[in-house]
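Board notes (copied after class):
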Amino acid sequence: MKKLKNFFSVEVIMGRYLITGGAGFIGSHIVEYLYKKSHKIRIVDNFSTGKWENIQEFTGKNVEVIEADIAWRNQLKGIMKDIEIVYHQAAIPSVPKSIKNPRATYRANVMGTLNILQAAKDAGVICVIFASSSSVYGTASNLPVYEDIPLKPISPYGASKLAGEHLCRVFSEIYQLNTICLRYFNVFGPRQDPKSQYAAVIPRFIDKMLKGQQPVIYGDGFQTRDFTYIMNVVKANILASACENNGEGIFNIASSSSRSINELVALLNTLLKTNIPPRYIKERANEP
């Protein structure tokens, strides 16, 4: 497994950073880190899922917020001006949403990524860090999962992220734009929205259990996940932007340990001091 440098040995160079999807769950944490280091930040978000409250305490003289949809190229004019590093987090990050509306997922995740790469190339950006996903692997039969195993996404979302990775590789090879693809594994942490029907499993379970309600498990609960804390994802992005890569690279961003969904419920019961059994229903199609 490829490794990034030690986070504590990296000093982020003062510059100007663009974070797409900067008002979202992961993007806002990258914004917070850079803001506290007094870097100049430009946030681009269409606020379809991102929230102003995620970033309102980080606004100031070094922070610029632009409301724009990256899928519409005419809305992106000038967003790369003076930008050196792009953290491309904007996406529709949901397998169920992608199955319900694959066209919207393609538009946001593939066309949006193409537009960002094109704008970055034209502006002479140093590096684009692309938020990919473990969904590119599909149903991996052998664990742990390494970056060089065959890829077979089983959802429009996974396919859209793989398409984004290919676009990054092509822009690196043809246009010499440095790109780093980070494959996130089941990220969790503060500011993650538990309310949506498409919410990630940890905030959704916590929300239910705090209300005395049974968490819903699709299938038998023995399926395993590698859960990754948000600050580890932030660190990975910062490390990626500091890499002297001169090309492109792909890295798994995970904890290197897995838990079953049943184990997760048991752990949450312990932490929340509850004793609520899960409710099992039929597993969802096209999810590993």
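Comment from the instructor: The radius of gyration is 19 Å. Helices lie at 25-36, 95-100, 102-123, 156-175, 201-210, 230-242, 261-272.
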